[in-house]
Amino acid sequence: MTSANAPHTPPARTPWGLVILLGSLTAMGPLAIDMYLPSLPAIGAALKAEPSQTQATVAAFLAGMAIGQLIYGPASDRLGRRGPILFGVAVFILASIGCAMAQTVDQLLLGRFVQALGACAGGVVVRAVVRDQFDHTDTARILSLMMLIMGLAPILAPMLGGVLLGLGDWSWNFWFMAATGVAIGTAAFLRLKESRSEATALQASRENPLQSYLAVLRQRRLVGYALCGALNGATLFTYISASPELMMGTYGIPVAVFPFVFGLNAFAVIGSSQLNRLALRRATTDAVLARASNVAMAVGALLALAAVTGIGGMWTVLPLLFLLLGTYGFMQGNTTAGALSVDPLRSGATSALLGAASFAAGALAASLAGVLHDGTARPVALVMLAALIGSAVSLRTLALPRD
To answer: What distance in Å separates the CA atoms of residue 362 and residue 152, rounded to the nearest whole number?
Structure first.
């Protein structure tokens, strides 16, 4: 096994079939978040809901993702990887149908929460599957490759959602999600093999989920990686929840153009994740993390300055957002690999903690930006800067090895 403290040469063959399957399972969450964003005004009109209520369906989904992962992680250590994944996909399909048939905004809120409880199974268990089969650095490399699949969701989903809205109504988005869930679930049923080790099963049998979480939370470096990744990721969730109002409301970008502008920023995530994969050939995961954190802080400070002063308007804010979101591709794979390397026998519980922390931080940041909304980019930029400061502090005080 390759040491985490040395640059790594990847194996000659890349398991593309596994990467595509695992990336597709993980992409169910981003798909469900991004696809219906262009339909929020139509949902509000159809269900007689205020903008704050329709935006709350995004926060409800993030909350469901955070809570659900705490269940699936230990379950995958105890019961295996396949069962929880297939169960989660089934819940996602049924909840998507429920959302499509919602008659009130409260029903949609409930449906979105349950939909997230299903979607999160893919994300949390997939990380454990990767750690089951790869070492520290290869885990970061495979997760970066999966970004090629996962990153298509923010690009294609809003565009497809806009097309479906034009062909029918807002419910078509959720019917499509249900059909996608059927396709991905079928592929997982046929192709995904059980990867949990006997050692992991034995460890899980000796302790209940609460004991697993307590054991994980006692490990300083693991918590540091989790907080670092979650708080950096909070900038992405803040952007996702605030972007419709910021772009179409504040900056007046037409509804037909919004999916393209939104999708453009996803290229920053995809591109940086692939640059991260190449950087790992010459540097350690921790070295890449430290440099990416410095860049994120610098860009976040410039974004906050531009938003507060109003200099350049959207022509300053949107390019800086593009650069800031690009740091996500460097931070997420490496913080995940770092955390999973601390305690491999509890990879399910660790993956659950990573996911729950990420979506909890995202839901909190997105909600805070919504509460502070004043018709400008200031709340979004300041919330992002605060999250980045917390991410940098967590990395340097908890995660990085002390000399």
So the answer is: 20
Amino acid at 332: Q
CB proximity list for 239: less than 8 A, separation 6 or greater = 265, 321, 325, 380, 384
Q: Are 333 and 19 in contact (CB under 8 A)?
A: no
DSSP string over 29-41: HHHHHHTTGGGHH
Which CATH number does 16-399 carry?
1.20.1250.20
Report DSSP state, residue 39.
Answer: G
Domain ranges of the chain: 16-399
Q: Which residues of 99-111 are buried (b: 16+ CB within 10 A; e: fewer)?
A: bbebeebeebbbb
- Cα 55 to Cα 37: distance, rounded to the nearest angstrom: 9
Q: Is residue 74 within 8 Å of 97, Cβ to Cβ?
A: no
φ, ψ for residue 196, nearest 5 deg: -65, 135
Residue 56 gets which letter from DSSP?
Answer: H
pLDDT tens readout for residues 58-106:
888 988 888 888 888 888 888 899 999 999 999 999 999 999 999 999 9
Query: What's the rounded Cα separation, in Å, for the pair 31 and 154?
Result: 7
pLDDT tens digits for 228-246? 999 999 998 898 888 888 8
